[in-house]
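Anyone able to model this chain together with benzoic acid?
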Amino acid sequence: MEQEIEISPLRIGDEVPRFIARSTQGPLDLADYRGKWLILFSHPADFTPVCTSEFVALARAADKFAQLDCAMVGLSVDSLYSHLAWIRMIYDMAGVRVTFPIVEDPSMEIARAFGMIGSDAHDASSIRVTFFIDPEGILRASTCYPANVGRSVPEMLRLVAALQRVSGGDALAPADWEPGRDLLRVPRETAADVLKPEASADWFFKTMKDEG
Ligand code: BEZ
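re: yes, here you go
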């Protein structure tokens, strides 16, 4: 890794740190992902059961992420050669090609910069962190799962779609929102509006059609 990066956990709204690293698709510069949505996710270790199930599920859903114009980048402490041997094993075992890059992070420098592990951790086999990064390189959501529970690919897809739909600031995505379902309107009323005799008590909870 060539870029110096600050060691601090990221918060929603932060610009994510740039890094350059080796990956299964060749050298990877995070700056090259500007202009598109990106899921950057860590996994505890190659050749482990839950991680393997996640990679099979993510590889099978590659078309769905592509439809959202959302790239994926995996990352772990394992070496590039381990990543390559693992995706070959996944291909032999499940018949799926992992075509998104998997970054090697042997020093855990990237994982620490992104808060994927504790800054004082001695190994990286702790948690599954997922960052949802917008086309301007801003962190829009993150999730953190333990090593013994795999992530939900449908929820990752839903979250990307929801973040994209609300990114203009005109709509809100309610609980369990899926593309095509009604959204919620951003309330912009003032006291003068809500105190009008004809105003209803549910002025703050108005739906709108998903025309995105
Ligand atoms: C797994 O992916 O199965 C796993 C990884 C690290 C610790 C425990 C389980």
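Helices lie at 49-60, 62-67, 80-94, 109-113, 153-166, 191-194.
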